[in-house]
Amino acid sequence: xxxxxxxxxxxxxxxxxxxxxxxxxxxxxxxxxxxxxxxxxxxxxxxxxxxxxxxxxxxxxxxxxxxxxxxxxxxxxxxxxxxxxxxxxxxxxxxxxxxxxxxxxxxxxxxxxxxxxxxxxxxxxxxxxxxxxxxxxxxxxxxxxxxxxxxxxxxxxxxxxxxxxxxxxxxxxxxxxxxxxxxxxxxxxxxxxxxxxxxxxxxxxxxxxxxxxxxxxxxxxxxxxxxxxxxxxxxxxxxxxxxxxxxxxxxxxxxxxxxxxxxxxxxxxxxxxxxxxxxxxxxxxxxxxxxxxxxxxxxxxxxxxxxxxxxxxxxxxxxxxxxxxxxxxxxxxxxxxxxxxxxxxxxxxxxxxxxxxxxxxxxxxxxxxxxxxxxxxxxxxxxxxxxxxxxxxxxxxxxxxxxxxxxxxxxxxxxxxxxxxxxxxxxxxxxxxxxxxxxxxxxxxxxxxxxxxxxxxxxxxxxxxxxxxxxxxxxxxxxxxxxxxxxxxxxxxxxxxxxxxxxxxxxxxxxxxxxxxxxxxxxxxxxxxxxxxxxxxxxxxxxxxx
Length: 546
Prior knowledge:
alpha/beta, 6-stranded mixed beta sheet, about 40% helix
């Protein structure tokens, strides 16, 4: 048997005094052999990411390893100096973080950021480094590598940014690759390519992979071993089939039961009932949010001053009624988020009409829009960017409600109610966003959007950062809110399973165009467009295929 590349023995990491438990990680042990993938699963706050950052030597200052060993290729990492850890990071071990905007430097081009790694760890000349960077961008399926090298992170989509981070982690072919939710921001076709890339790296280099994920479909596809964590402790571990097909612990069984199916839920009758309840006297239902032939074209100029149009969105139309959830699916860069941002007037469309109820808003200026903005609220993909780190959660939740005329006492009561609804303790209102896990921060972002009591909620990958059990709770929450208030939801996602369970209708987008749309049950049963067929074929096989 080959010696493990990574060995963790009885590792414990203490939380600061006053935390909700004594240890972020307690008595965790694992071994990963060359060419092996260990998938770590568990709910947000279970200690998965703390364990990974301990291995990398990137723990927050307030967290301290208090017991155990972490050994990489025979070398103790807990005893290594900061200088030695800097040498090992990138060269011997690489990490792909969950949120790419926090991992990338906003004032450096993507090409320079990847090149910085090569400059630090190799003596290659500039032309060789550039060729290597370009080749790696092709490997991770980024379009137009030359343009990507010149681009800054904010000029790329969420999925494209994550692929840049992955390229940085694997370009030096490290012995250990730690992936902390690396495919969270990726559509299914790109996810499949990234998983292939990681498998290829393992085959060529004998690399070990520590893969943290909440996507059980990915676990079913790539794992050799599975470790289930809860509240900082190991609940269950073993070979993939043993854990996924024959779990022995109730917690593992609960996680697996929460995995959404690709078979759409039957929701049509419920949606129709909600719509009638929301507008019982209306002869013809008025859409809460609609867009007709909405287009967005960007203009750039080359060095000679010539104008070059980029058609990000081409004549896209949608209507969302009370109690209805409309999903938009497609690859990164397909125009999903551009369409949504035009509809909510975060960016100005270059063509088409947009209505919020009976208000035409496509041509309104910001001053005229401001009183209407409570009607349409949005939950963004990355809570790190949408929550103010200097405001407590309570301050963030009541801000919108106060801006739209609610009294302070009523806003505070609403904030407490929403925290309970998104399964967070009311006491957490006094904390700051940095004191929560990624999944918990996203729940806070959802609660903040709901605090404005909107008629339409636009969710841009709103559950992509959540583990399956919390994801299931949030989906239930959205349905409950729809049933009570007749809320309309526009749901942008790359997760076809989540769309199947939540959406009444699904729109499929590719290269800025709507290529297919229809009721979820019909579309999933019989997709007509070749692009839709390829998209569905790329989805992970899931637990039902085991």
